[in-house]
Amino acid sequence: MGIESSVRARRDDQPSDGCGTTVGPHPALRSARSPANVPATIIAPANAGTKHLAARPFVPLAPLGSPIAAYLELHIEQGPILEREDVPVGVVTGIQGTVWLEVTLTGQAAHAGTTPLDFRRDPLAAATRLLATLHGEVMPSDPQARFTVGRIEASPGSVNAVPESVTFTVDLRHPDAARLAALEQRVREAAMREAERARCTASFRPLAHMPPLAFPEAMLEVIETGAGRAGLPTLRLISGAFHDALHVARCAPTAMIFCPCRGGISHNEAEDVEPRFVAAGATALLEASLAFLERADMGTSIETRGAAMRAG
Question: What burial letters (b/e) apply to 164-177, b meaning 16+ CB within 10 Å?
Fold first, then answer.
């Protein structure tokens, strides 16, 4: 059984522990509810950090590619919902889909002081109108939609010149595959319109496309059972960010546990999580793992392949 604990470090975008390492239940953590005949293994690359492996001295290594029965991942929410609702454990129902695009509007470089408005082919003016429209429409019209421009660059980047081109990234997210596709088409069509209006051209480079993912109901119930045994309230919610679970779900039943982060802040130096929420998340992870093993010991079947269904 794969387990990952991934409470992010404040100054590092990478998980603080467990990334790329698959861990079975530690012998020291077994209880009366944990069947003794389920082997404990770590699946890790040959160059895995010795510090992490030394922390698990009783768990033998297994080769890469070894099958796993299921995968559970603990992570901070990276959003404000759990803290706002004062719920210590989030049961993640799935991961919303994501489309990344790089958009380039190309016009004509010209002198800032000598070029009248009628003679300008200004891609930055077109990009400004385009982004103002999309920011004003996409998320206000659909609470589940996410639209973000994280990077923008004008070229050649001279103070005294109309830019020749403007390139920016677009991050689109939605839990519904059809709505995500419609959002991408909306961005492309709006960019073409504004480019034409400014006598510019628009081009697009796809950077990423990850369809929405729904975790198996049986795995969600395992988490709720484990949290209930520990007396921890839970709330179901979808993940707005993608995680390792998104990839592992292709080969094993998968689910995630969220714990609240302070102010819902993430990807920021102020990112933090209270110790009590770390403890609650770790407890829910342990109890969910034991609940899964108990089901396996009783012969309850959770499909090991194809149980995680991609929406759309």
Answer: bbbbbbbbbbbbbe
pLDDT tens figures, 3-46: 555 444 333 333 333 433 443 333 323 333 344 444 444 444 44
Tell me if residue 43 falls in helix, strand or coil. Answer: strand
Q: Is 272 exposed, middle or buried (0-12, 13-18, 19+ CB in 10 A)?
A: middle
Contact between residue 163 and residue 124 where contact means Cβ atoms under 8 Å apart: yes
Nearest to 213 by CA among 91, 307, 303, 95: 95
If you average pLDDT over residues 124-139, what whole number do you get? Answer: 97
DSSP per-residue string spanning 46-112 = TT--HHHHHT-TTS-EE-TT---S-EEEEEE-SSSHHHHHT-SEEEEEEE-EEEEEEEEEE---EET
Model confidence over 50-93: pLDDT tens digits? 666 676 676 666 676 677 788 899 999 988 999 999 999 999 99
Residues 42 and 233: their CA atoms lie apart, in Å, by 30
Of residues 279, 277, 271, the one with CA closest to residue 13: 271
Top CATH class of 97-210 equals alpha beta
Q: 173 by DSSP, 3-state: which? A: strand
Question: Six-digit token pair at 273?
Answer: 């999580």
Residue 289: pLDDT above 60? yes
Q: Give domain limits for the chain.
A: 2-95+212-310, 97-210
Which CATH code, of 3.40.630.10, 3.10.310.70, 3.30.200.20, 3.40.50.2300, is assigned to 2-95+212-310?
3.40.630.10
Q: What is the CA radius of gyration of the chain?
A: 24
Q: How far apart are CA 76 and CA 88, in angstroms?
A: 11
Q: Report if pTM > 0.85.
A: no
**Residue listed under structure tokens 């998320």:** 139
What pLDDT, on the 0 to 100 scale, is given for residue 106? Answer: 98
For the chain, the maximum distance between any two Cα atoms, rounded to a whole number of angstroms, is 82
Spatial separation of the C-alpha atoms in residues 20 and 14, rounded to whole Å: 11
